[in-house]
Amino acid sequence: MEDDAPVIYGLEFQARALTAQAAETDAVRFLVGTQSLKFDNQIHIIDFDDENNIINKNVLLHQAGEIWHIGASPADKAVLTTCYNKTSDSRVVSCAAVWRMPSDWETGNHESPDESAHNPQTLELLCHLDDSTHGNAACVLWEPMGDGKRVISLADNHALLWDLQESSTQAAVSSTATLEGKGQLKFTSGKWSPHHNCSQLATANDTAIRGWDLRTMRVWSVRYNHSHDQLVLTASSDSRLILSNMVSISSEPFGHLVDDEELSEGEELHQEDKGKEPLKDSVVSTYEEHEDSVYAAEWSSADPWLFASLSYDGRLVINRVPRALKYRILL
Amino acid sequence: MDGEGSVPVAEDPARRRRVHGMLKLYYGLNEEGKAPEQPESLDPCDINGPHFDPELYLNKLRRECSLTELMDQETCMVRQIRSLDSDMQTLVYENYNKFISATDTIRKMKNDFKKMEDEMDCLSANMAAITEFSARISGTLQDQHAQITKLSGVHTLLRKLQFLFELPARLNKCLELQAYAQAVNTHRRARCVLQQYSHLPSFKGIQDDCHAIMDKLAQELRQKFRDGGSSAKDLSECVELLLQLDEPAEELCDKFLSHARSRLESDLQGLEAEIKPYPSTATKDASAHGSSSATAPGSPSDGSPKSSSLPSPASNTDILEFIDRGCNEFVSSLCLVITSYQELFINHAQKGELASKNIPQMANGKLHAFVDDLAARYFMLVERRIQEEKGVGDNSLLVRALDRFHRRLQAVAKLLPGSAVPNKGTEIVIRAATERVKQYLSALQSFYMDSLTDVRQALATPRLSVAGTSVAGPASGRDAPTSLPELLSSLSASILNQIKSVLASVHLFTAKDITFSNKPYFKGEFCSQGVRESLVVSFIKFVCQSSRQFCETAGDKGGSTPPALLLLLSRLCLDYETSTISYILTLTDEQFLVQHHSPVTPVTTLCAEAREAAQKLLNHYVKVQGLIISQMLRKSVETRDWVNTIEPRNVRAVMKRVVEDTTSIDVQVGLLYEEGVRKAHSSDSSKRTFSVYSSSRQQARYAASYTPSAPMDTNLLSNIHKLFSERIDIFSSVEFNKVSVMTGIIKISLKTFLECVRLRTFGRYGLQQIQVDCHYLQMYLWRFVSDENLVHFLLDEIVGSAAHRCLDPAPMEQSVIEVICERG
């Protein structure tokens, strides 16, 4: 019952953007966006073969600029959004766009993997999510479980809700919200709440979610496990990834009032959990495979016990929840 | 025998030996008896020894001695033989004489016995004659004796009858004279006779008369008893008589006790009146306090001392007076009641025939219930009064009051063995003592919090001046050095003094002249659990706890705790760990002679806790200071357009500010913590190491990373570099020394700088500005840290990252950088 060793994958470029391919529920697949000012940036599609512990990669070119954030459509596997920096006339502009992957990236790859690495295919631009009045886009968030028609982009201190029309080739702002406060507040990260029919959005600005993990200097990424929301993944600048078991914020708490609606996923687990000692809030494990700041961590959309983390030096590590804990939560 | 005859004269030594042996036989000196005494005389030549061999002896003599000596020997021997012979003859003669005189004595005795036998015969004949006479006389007197006996019997009977007939009259007379005792006595004597002969009409009449009279008498007695005004002696007589009149004892007891109760209750009411005024004020005060604490829950430490000090001036009698009054009035009357009651119902009844009716047991039970009931009320009052005693100023008054209270209860205990009253009293004392300990704990705690507030204020004032002078430069350090260590020592000394004074106050409870101090509770549990655990240990724990809270709350409020206070508290906790805790506990153990029956918190646990608190505080200090500097750096990076910036001419002001602040932090930490160890090679030359850092290594890196054809090299190089350098743990625990603290703060600051740089995009001059800034930092920061390579590495990373994020990476010449930095 030894826990499997983590799987490490190295990219040539520095990278900050990582997401799981949300529409893909069979394979463990992550998308990584690179950051390079001098070369064409790439999107790496990384498949993880759970049984053989092997990684397969595919590379797509993203020529628009260095990628700061990446998001995958929950409805269409091939559709994704990126936030990227564009430099023109010695000015740096942050933009956001919706892209479609070339339809044959998968098949082409299987036939000649070497060739695809050398001659990566290019993404097809669907539309820009641009609104110059609202500043630089920090990230784009797809409505989870939706039909891939609605996204929210966070730009400086604004949150914009976009409606994508005509197979995502046109985008229109349907509503905006502004974060008010002292100083220059900026949204840095955010996440739709999967509960309450996706009507809520959680955002993080700078240190506002530091409370999750007091030890780290700046938490760059917080991810709930989507089916067992007591597992929280935090990635931080001290090259560490921390998996915490936060029973207190779980939607399957012991002795709390819980809406049945909320439990749509975890209901049967809840029934079984009842007679058990509640697990305490604690750090489950700390992963130290990274050598540089970890800016992104993401749960796999296919396997709820699997997660990937990406550090600045381009190292992607795929890890699993320790088995002992997994069985304690499940049984 | 035949040998003797044939022994020649010449062989006289052998003959003499034989004679000698016979003499020895006569005196019981056989050879066995002599042998153990003279074991040395085995020599065959010893003429007196048992193993004497004449042959050997003779030969020896002949060999060794000359003729004259032999001759002398011979004459000497002959002389000795003669004297022995004469001795023998004397002895034989003396024995013979003794034998003759013994024979004479025996003959004389024989004659004397014969005469005595004759006289005995004569005596026995006389005795027989006397017996005969005596028998004859008693026979003749028999008849007269019987008659006399009969007459005397009749006489007594007549006397008794007369007594009976006179009885009613006599009783009446007694009644008139109020000689109740006599009446009862008389009646008692006649009672059973009358009872026995009551079937005879005449006796019946008498009996009825008597009954009537006695009823009247009993009535009068009861009346007298009820009035209760009579003296104790009268009362007791009264009760005794009533008891003899078969009055139900239970009723009497009840009556007696109810009398006593009314008197005692008036005492109790008097006592209650003493505390009556308080409940109203106390409740008012409590409600006021409650409302105030409800409105301001954040400051309970401020509210409690005020409210506790309020009732003390309002009380017009202090607790000692109160207890005194209780003892003198209530307890002493209770004792009196107990004594007289016991005298009446228990001791008396035990003597008389009434004991059989189980009266003592019954009476005893009633008495116990009575005493318990009243004592419970008394205790309630006392406890109420004690609870009002909240001011912790003077403990001796309370202890003396409790002592008196306890001492007086011992009297009750003596009078009424087996009563629960003294135990309850002791319980009250114990409760009061534990309550006191609690009050002292909270007083200590509020004292501690108050002193912290003082320290805070003291820190705030010089800080202003420091802030004012810090612009001027080195003067900033001058105000702080006088204050910080002094504040620490005065804080720690005042806490220690307070603890000592509290210990002294609490120690009064166990003073030798206090009666309850020898109770097992005060000897054992009070010392170990009460004083040591819930006072001293709890206080130390409180100190650690509150220190830890500074770490937790400060994070939310954004540094409401001044960093200097964190530093000071950390040092305080560390001092506690190294010496103060063990000192305090030793002091406590010595003063209270704590015998650890129950498990107590060991010193090591407390020390570990204090150390943990110190560590936490110091870590927090590092974090807070680090974040303050980080914030400056961050703002400076985030608010600038790095792409379109001009060529660097100066070090940015922020960097100077960072160095200044770091210096002043260094001074501050240096006041309380030792220097610590740094890696040896860093001490002398900042120039040399820096030039290594900037020229050779850095140039090499730039060369590699900015050739566009080899993008992999950058990663490879930095990865290889990282592989060989130790991983930097930004938030690792710091050690208790200055260098470690400074290292922690600088690590945090530089790491923030790095992260901020990575979020930006730089133009050519942006990168160069970063180079200049980093060089400047390098020039000044290396001296603060334990391992300057750490600073090198982080600054390297910053410049490297900036280069990565640079659109037009053209690094500045090293010499130009140096010139700019030296210009300041």
TrEMBL record, chain B:
GO terms for biological process: endocytic recycling; Golgi organization; Golgi vesicle transport; lipid transport; lysosomal transport; protein transport; retrograde transport, endosome to Golgi. It comes from the Eukaryota. Keywords: Coiled coil, Endosome, Golgi apparatus, Lipid transport, Protein transport, Transport. Residues 288-313 have a biased composition (Low complexity). Residues 281-313 are annotated as: Disordered. InterPro entries: Cullin_repeat-like_dom_sf, EXOC2/Sec5_N_dom, Vps51. Residues 47-352 form the Exocyst complex component EXOC2/Sec5 N-terminal domain. It is found in: Golgi apparatus, trans-Golgi network; Recycling endosome. The keyword Transmembrane does not apply. Its main location: Golgi. GO terms for cellular component: cytosol; EARP complex; GARP complex; membrane. Belongs to the VPS51 family. Component of the Golgi-associated retrograde protein (GARP) complex. Component of the endosome-associated retrograde protein (EARP) complex. Involved in retrograde transport from early and late endosomes to the late Golgi. The GARP complex is required for the maintenance of protein retrieval from endosomes to the TGN, acid hydrolase sorting, lysosome function, endosomal cholesterol traffic and autophagy. Acts as component of the EARP complex that is involved in endocytic recycling. This is Vacuolar protein sorting-associated protein 51 homolog. It comes from Neolamprologus brichardi (Fairy cichlid).
